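User: Teach me something about this protein's shape.
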Amino acid sequence: MNAQHPSAPTPAKSGHPAGGVEHVNEPHHDHFVVVGNHLAQHPELSLTAIGLAVHIQSLPARTPVGIKTLTAKFAEGEMRIAAALRELEAHGYLARTKERLQSGRVVTRTISYNKPGRGAVRAAAGRPALPPAPETPTAPRTAIDLLAGLRAHDSRLLLAERDVHRLAPAVSAWLERGVPPTAVQRALTNGLPKDPILNPAAFLAHRLEAHLPPPFPAAPARPPALVRPDPLQNCEGCDRAFRSQRPGRCRDCRSVGVAA
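Assistant: First, the predicted structure itself:
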């Protein structure tokens, strides 16, 4: 009779490789969200960005999704969440714009796309902007909005959807260095050549790279705080004024006392 080894590993079943994931799937009838593999298995998005996109797509409409709100929910800090939001914007899963209400208050409008496509860029390019209050600069737009709207300034700057997403990180680099969106727009549209622009994506990529401004210089160190001198006191021995934190005798009178 052959000896049995209960601790020996069970051989893999035919047709199933050893290791790897196995799925136990049960149907959901409520409280679920449908996520495409284009997001769940995205080759360029970070895991933080993929998870954040799934979370945002699962939320009801009008739920706040600002950086501080998300930071209060999850363990990731503001920098990681902000970077993940920029990833989703660059790949067309998210669009954020600041709009001014009739009351004058500025609010952030966030649009989540469960399947980025032509609709995302078309909605960004054709979205009407509310008029700003007098003597107030126009509210900033996201990188995707900015690129998609360049054709309104010159029809030669019409970009394909894939070029909008490819150039969005370069525009975000300008915005992260403190350049207002209106200034980025002017840098891309001022002084255009009179000749036809055969490749607008390459033309804009060159301008974004060649004219990228340097980061803001570090803030100068604050000067050391001034030390206030001790208040004037009247010497109890010779009535001469001297500086000290508390009343008493001046140095000369103290020396005489010690000598005596």
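Now, about its shape. Residues 37-191+198-210 form one domain. The chain has ten helices and four strands. If you'd like, I can walk through any region in more detail.
User: That's plenty for now, thanks!
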